[in-house]
Amino acid sequence: MVHLKYKPIPQELAKGTTLLQRINKNNAALQYIELKVIKMTSGSKFQESLGKQEVCIVALTGKITVTDGEHTFKTIGTRKNVFEKIPTDSVYISIEQTFDITAITEATVILCYSPSDKKKTTTLIKASDNTIERRGKYQNKRLVHNILPDTSPIADRLLVVEVFTDGGNWSSYPPHKHDQDNLPLESKLEETYYHEMNPRQGFVFQRVYTDDRLLDETMAIENGDVVVVPKGYHPVGVPDGYDSYYLNVMAGPTRKWQFHNDPDHEWILNRE
Question: 248-258 pLDDT, tens per residue?
Answer without folding.
Answer: 999 999 999 99
